[in-house]
Design goal:
By secondary structure, the protein is mainly β. The chain has no helices and 5 strands. Helices cover 0% and strands 53% of the residues.
């Protein structure tokens, strides 16, 4: 049995809510898909995430789910 091939995509999104005590942020992409970013997600410093800020997400697409692989705050 071979492992499923990973596919990545890039989407732009806007930060909707930041829960700093939990190290969790929710972002909404331009297609209205909601994504979660945690303090341990690779990318820009978590403290740079503020409500309304634009971010670029690297999405890792699997057969039955997708996850944020990395994020970058857009200036």
């Amino acid at each position: 049995m071979q492992p499923a091939r990973q596919v990545t995509s890039t989407v732009d999104a806007r930060v909707e809510q930041v829960l700093p005590r939990f190290g969790l942020a929710f972002v909404l992409d331009d297609a209205s898909q909601s994504w979660g970013v945690t303090r341990s997600t690779p990318g820009s410093p978590f403290d740079a995430l503020t409500t309304g800020r634009r971010v670029r997400l690297q999405i890792e697409v699997h057969q039955s789910f997708s996850v944020v692989r990395e994020y970058r705050v857009l200036d």
